[in-house]
Amino acid sequence: MGIISDVRYMFYVLFHPFDGFFEVRFRNKGNYALSAIIVLLYGIISIFDYQYRGFIINYSPPFYMNSIFIFTVAVFPILLFIISNWSITTLFNGNGKIKDIFIVIAYSLVPKLVFDFIRTLLSNVIILDEVFILNSIVNIGTIWFFFLLFCGLCVTHEYTVFTNIVTLIATFVAAVIIIFLVMLYFILMGKIVGFAAAVFSEVFQRGIGG
Amino acid sequence: MKLKYMTLVLLFTASIVFPCIQAEAAYTRETNYTYNFWGQDKRSIAAFELEDIIDGGSLGKVRMSSADDVFAAGERIFIVDSAESRVNVLDPEFNLITSIKLVRNKDNKIVVIGDNKQLMLNQPEGVFLSEKFNELYIADTGEERIIVLDGDKYYLKRIIEKPANMVGDTLFKPSKIVVDETGRILTVVQDGYEGILELDKNGSFSRYFGVNKPKVDIIDYFWRSFASDEQKKKMEKLFAPSFNNVDIDEEGFVYAVTYDDSAKDKVFRLNSKGENVLVEKGYFTVTGDMQYLENKDNEFIDIAVTDYGVYAVLDRNTGRIFIYNFDGFLINIFNKNGNLKGNLKEAGGIEWLDKKLIVTDRQLACMFVFQPTEFGRIVLEAEELYFKGKFNEAIKLFQKAIKLNSNYDLAYINIGKNHLLNDNYKEAMYYFKLGNSRSYYSQAYKYYRAIKLQENFGWLFAFIIITALLILYSEYRYNKKTA
User: Fold this and answer.
1) What interface predicted TM-score (ipTM) does this complex get?
2) What average pLDDT does this structure show over A160-177?
3) B442/A128 CB distance under 8 A
């Protein structure tokens, strides 16, 4: 069974990031389907968290619940990071391909995903004095996530720590530029479509309608 | 039989043609709302409705050109008309008792001061009746003095001029005035940035009372930190915002409001040290409307406090009246600036007359009397009972209030609190959830959880034992493998 052994190997990666990501990168021990499932799961758990987080710490207005929006907000930064990191590291002599970066970020997400889910479940059985426990649980997951991501990128791109930090800063800048271009594209496309629609309706109403 | 159908049809048409034949809501306007936990404005049923309008016409010969401050105490209502320089005294049925302009002495002779001038009010802005000392204090703003009259016969007792020992830049231009149980006189000077002026019983200056902190503007602070001393001199000086009106409650706490837009707080409850001890346990702080919904800030011009902690603040910008309870929880918002009957043009003052509200309008020179509707009466009575510790009676009224207005969230919390006190944790949790009170929900849940844990202790214990055994077994197997 391929996927079961891949899941097992994923857990090995979580506890031995340097060895694990090396094997994933150079001996094809990663699984793209598994990575995709993890990213999807992360989005679904964000929706779950919005709705089912315990009342005591749930400040999300129930009437604004929009699962598609929440899912997008959770998954979009991941995709953005993959694209901007790949576009930077190709310039900075990074050896990772876009699919390698995808596996690294997906596998790194696992602790965050698990701890976030534990937080959502536990938040239903805590009182206000115990909220700090939940916060520390979430913090453990987040720190673990960042650590794995950092290690994974180092190994995948064959970077030193310093170059990795520089490329990460550059990744952030690239992400901002990508968002800017995307917005520009959508606004311009909107104008073009609007123009075409106006021309069409003008022709249709005056030319044919008389 | 036919007649019966005819009457039915007639009643039906009547109910369509005259839909507003109701017992109480005759003058209700659709301006009544409140804010829910999420900051949305939600329709609330009317808490107050217009009962009566008192203007020049109902005062007989006395002309009424303005209505500024209003004060009710000792079975009387005092209205200050600063345009006519009069203080009109009405009884609770709104009949004119007397109108004070020329001040007389004990022998009913006109008082003469200085070089043959009659002692006459000149643009007074504030009035206060001290029931303990039986003295009527009039802030005679135009002449920069306070006139103290007898509380019953209205003859002159004394005149308080600017105290000789007064310090600071504030002009002695008393505008609004209150006197506490010990006889100290607190008077507001408009634009006085040093605080409320406090005089002792004899009229000598004792101190400036209350601090009104300005908002901190981050950008301004940033530039100031770079500026040299010379540049700082050229910059606009930051003065503490002034207080604009005062009221005093039974316990001697001074309530004050400000409409200075640079002020951090807008409503104050000042203790004897002059610190703001206003309770703000509502969903939001006591600042009136949610600012992101309005393009205009509220400018509170007057405040009125009841014996049971409920206070009403009057906004001159929108003409709205905000009613808060002692905890700073918004009860209802009503009225507006407009042209309908009961709407305001230029808000003047506000005052409680038992459970009715009196609101004056400067431009219309009249006084609107608002009486509580069924909902308003229930809410105010419930607040009074709750404030006085009669919880069980209060809860019954709160339950009634919810039936009338399900947007009245405060009632849910109070009912929940009562359930919590009576150890009905599940019901308490239900009501706290409806009232969006997370801290109280947490308290109720704490006990509820403890009970559930006790009930299901067997299962929990079994679970722990089994987990421990499983861990032991896996360790054993692991060691056996590696050994």
Assistant:
1) 0.81
2) 94
3) yes
